[in-house]
Design brief:
Blueprint: H1 9-36, H2 44-52, H3 57-81, H4 90-118, H5 131-139, H6 144-167, H7 179-183, H8 185-212, H9 221-229, H10 234-258, H11 272-279
Helix pairs in contact: 1-2, 1-3, 1-10, 2-4, 3-4, 5-6, 6-8, 8-9, 8-10, 9-10
């Protein structure tokens, strides 16, 4: 398809990243508030459930709902038409499959938001995620533990990828250079690394579940926070990561406004990588 026919994908991408930013801002902000009050960091479902009961929370959930569905659709079209020009070699195919996986995950967040808005009580507030239940069902299949193990390695790989993107500044080539992105670059870097740590820990929990044949050890964001809090200086570590996730929410908002889509953006757009490389 031509660039003109795919131009509608840009607003879809912007809405998707904005909704993603809203989700992580809610998780990080509500978790920090809970920690300040002597509680624990929250998972995504619990954070959205808490948000539902605040002033303006339903409106925010509706924006998140639209954003998550938009993000899922964006990832489908991004992968199908290779809008970010990853190519058709092995590395590019893996990246495009990863887009589909992240799209499905965020569609799941959209379903949680939809249930909260229209289903009465789907937030599972304070009850943790339903991930162990689903992991347990998969483990009953032939080779189920191996399947969970492979999923674990994929999630760990995604976490390492995010951390690598932040550490090596690879993300800069996907953002337009301007006064805002240049000044906020350290926050974007820290946010992406913090996000990678959380994703990596989730992958480790899946790996523990597969290794020990115990689905209760698998989990999502909330379980990752719980595992981290049990480490040395755990509460300080979790607080630092939640602050980092505030940075990741800013990273998502910045992507909503300034992300470069190679096959849809003009050739004259200067990336943040090019700008900072020229000024160094």
């Amino acid at each position: 398809m031509t660039k003109d026919k795919l131009g509608w994908a840009i607003p879809l991408m912007r809405l998707g990243y904005f909704g993603k930013g809203m989700v992580y801002l809610a998780v990080a902000g509500i978790s920090l508030y809970s920690i300040w009050r002597g509680g624990q960091a929250k998972d995504t479902s619990s954070a959205l459930g808490w948000l539902e009961n605040t002033w303006g929370g339903s409106a925010a959930l509706f924006v998140i709902l639209l954003g998550m569905f938009a993000y899922a659709l964006w990832r489908i079209f991004d992968a199908a038409f290779d809008l970010e020009d990853y190519g058709t070699e092995a590395k590019g195919i893996i990246a495009r499959i990863g887009m589909l996986v992240t799209g499905a995950i965020h569609m799941g967040v959209g379903v949680v938001a939809f249930t909260l808005l229209f289903g009465g009580s789907g937030g599972d507030q304070g009850q943790g995620s339903g991930i162990p239940r689903y992991v347990g069902q998969v483990m009953q299949w032939p080779g189920g533990r191996w399947i969970i193990g492979v999923v674990a390695l994929l999630i760990i790989g995604a976490g390492v990828h995010y951390m690598k993107q932040g550490w090596t500044n690879e993300y800069r080539k996907h953002l337009r250079a301007n006064h805002f992105t240049t000044r906020w670059n350290p926050v974007l870097k820290a946010g992406l690394i913090a996000h990678g740590i959380v994703v990596g820990v989730v992958g480790l929990l899946f790996l523990f579940a597969a290794w020990r044949a115990n689905p209760q050890e698998a989990g999502g964001t909330g379980e990752a926070f719980s595992w981290l809090s049990g480490q040395v200086y755990g509460q300080i570590l979790v607080t630092g990561i939640c602050l980092g996730l505030v940075g990741f929410s800013i990273f998502c908002f910045v992507n909503a406004a300034y992300r470069i889509v190679p096959k849809l953006s003009g050739p004259d757009i200067k990336s943040l990588a090019a700008s900072l490389g020229a000024s160094s």
